[in-house]
Specification:
The chain is of the alpha/beta class. The protein has 16 helices and 13 strands. It has a seven-stranded mixed beta sheet, sandwiched between helices. Helix 15 (358-368) packs across helix 16 (388-399). The structure holds 4'-deoxy-4'-aminopyridoxal-5'-phosphate. Belongs to the class-I pyridoxal-phosphate-dependent aminotransferase family.
Length: 400
């Protein structure tokens, strides 16, 4: 049956992991994959999550199927967390939401919804560059993507002029994918002023904003601050789509817990949209997993656990911010690098776009056993007080 099936290419991010595992050097460093690590380089399970699990265990709950759209108490808490409990779309009961399989699954439902209900040929504008999987999610759902300028390699910052120009030139009614905070892979976010300019174009061109919010609270340590862009748009009365993930901010990576939501014009419209979301989800996976929803629901809804979580969330964000400072300081103060490394601390979130070329990335791997993707992106979560100096020295050596 399958003799014509050819070997496919390895996933560029997961491929870095594989190469790292095979390396036996004692100083090897993995700054590839985007998952939080503590200062000892170990995965972290939050105490708030452990406590939620204990509470759930004590309740001796059954394992029945969830409804198609998931756990109601999770969904309600998830939209309050993203849009704000006092936001107009929540108070006016016009958000269609379904629990889904983390951020990726949510994006995929959004893509399927676009494919089914937007005019044929509608394009999704994605930032250049964007998280690689965005392109596959949309193309596998038969939705065409198109890039808008985002990163400026000259400044290692945002190309706001190019961005606005490209959105202005997009056909009216296109979809625009926006990273709500902590842009992956560049770590470059628009300022509040720049978000206001983006909002203006989106409004003028009647674009549909599709927010991907995979790092709320994980970027700055403050979930309200990290929801700024999303809330700016919804407060301005725009109807948005949202793919939300609790993988990073709760450390629930493998639990696959997130949500997909659409802000509608009226509660009646919301009912119709939700009915169609159910029709989309049922043949895809029937209903979502139970465990992650129970955990996230407890962490969001139990006042004590919520308080504890927010402290732990800030600690994760602070560790990343501190490692950015440490890396930059070693480069500038210890190794006297003459390059401008200010972007390391100007960027935010798990990822830093170092500006290193593919050839320099190869040297890092071959000479220093440091593993990252060839676009020069490092996951700052892989940096710690023990390896920061070694990484900085290697960066200095390959950029001299
Ligand atoms: N969007 C972006 C921008 C991401 O960086 C990620 C995680 N790498 C996701 C979505 C989805 O992650 P998950 O499916 O694990 O929630």
């Amino acid at each position: 049956f399958w003799q014509n099936v050819k070997m496919g290419p390895a996933d560029p991010i997961l491929g870095v992991n594989e190469a790292f595992k095979k390396d036996t050097h004692d100083k090897k460093v993995l700054v590839g994959v985007g998952a939080f690590r503590d200062d000892n380089g170990k995965p972290l399970v939050l105490t708030a999550v452990r406590k939620a699990e204990e509470l759930i265990l004590k309740q001796n709950l059954d394992k029945e199927y969830l409804p198609i759209i998931g756990l109601d108490s999770f969904n309600k808490a998830a939209i309050r967390f993203a849009y704000g409990s006092q936001s107009a779309p929540i108070l006016e009961n016009r958000i269609a939401i379904t629990q889904s399989l983390s951020g990726t699954g949510s994006l995929r439902i959004g893509a399927a919804f676009i494919e089914r209900f937007m005019p044929k040929g509608t394009k999704v504008y994605v930032p250049k560059p964007t998280w690689g999987n965005h392109l596959s999610v949309f193309s596998d759902a038969r939705v065409e993507t198109c890039e808008y300028r985002y990163f400026d390699p000259k400044t290692n910052g945002l190309n706001i002029v190019g961005l606005l120009e490209d959105l202005n030139n997009a056909p009216n009614g296109s979809v625009v994918l926006l990273h709500g905070c902590a842009h992956n892979p560049t770590g470059v976010d628009p300022t509040q002023d720049q978000w206001a300019q983006i909002l203006q174009v989106v409004k003028n061109k009647n674009l549909l904003p599709f927010f991907d919010v995979a790092y709320q609270g994980f970027a700055s340590g403050d979930p309200v601050r990290d929801a700024y862009s999303l809330r700016l748009f919804t407060d301005a009365g725009l109807q948005v789509m949202l793919a939300q993930s609790f993988a990073k901010n709760m450390g629930l990576y493998g639990e696959r817990i997130g949500s997909f939501s659409i802000v509608c014009a009226t509660p009646e419209e919301k009912d119709c949209v939700l009915s169609q979301i159910k029709i989309l989800v049922r043949p895809l996976y029937s209903s979502p997993p139970l465990n992650g929803a129970r955990i996230a629901e407890k962490v969001l809804n139990d006042p004590e656990l919520n308080k504890l979580w927010l402290v732990e969330l800030k600690a994760m964000a602070d560790r990343i911010i501190n490692m950015r400072q440490l890396l930059r300081s070693y480069l500038e103060n210890d190794f006297k690098s003459t390059h401008d490394w200010s972007h390391i601390t100007n960027q935010i979130g798990m990822f830093c776009f170092t500006g290193l070329s593919p050839a320099q990335v190869d040297r890092l791997k071959d000479e220093f056993h440091i593993y990252l993707t060839r676009n020069g992106r490092i996951s700052v979560a892989g940096v710690n007080t023990k390896n920061a100096k070694y990484i900085a020295e290697a960066f200095h050596q390959v950029t001299k």
